[in-house]
Amino acid sequence: MNGTAPIVTAYQISEPGFRIVEAVVSAEECDALVQSLSNPQVSRGRAGARHLMAVPEIARLACDERLMDIARRELRAEPFPFRVTLFEKSGKANWLVVWHQDTALPLKAPFDDNGWGPWSEKAGVAYAHAPAWALSRVWALRVHLDASTTDNGPLRVVPHSHRLEVLTDEAIGDVVRKSGFVECVVGQGGVLTMSPLIIHSSSKARIDAARRVLHVEYADSQSLGPGIELAVA
Q: Is residue 1 one of the residues assigned to a domain?
């Protein structure tokens, strides 16, 4: 890729595997959500915190009709919120994310199916890498508690790459080199929606300004098939 990445700042009309909706949550609500994350039950790591559906304020946000309506539009079904993760980046907690797809799902119990795996466990929750047909039934809404700018490590995505099934790391690199990417700049309270299959990454922040994002995931049903039940995490 040559030159500067294009910047996406408005709601997309086409279906590239991601969209931006500005001003969904107020600044006051963002501040209150940040405060709720100081709850002792929230186990913070260097990059944020996982399994936040157990925090009442976060669970209410996931079920808020404003987010549910966006998720409903993306999934074309009644959304089931099942997982919330905090991603927190700043000059003091600075990290980059390499190009990848989000392929691991939390599940109520392990099962034997050649299309799923490898399996792992995180904080007592079973996880498996899922096949593309299951991931196509999931959509994520990234609620920006702070503005995401070109300087604080915004998400980068490869438009339309969610149509390419689950790829190897080598294939992902090839797609990025051939297709290029865009940077997703989102204001405080804005929502970036994305397919878990879209190829994405983020760079390190260049400034010491917080970039806190609540990554809320929805499926079209808690049950993805006989014996395949999403865990709420």
A: no
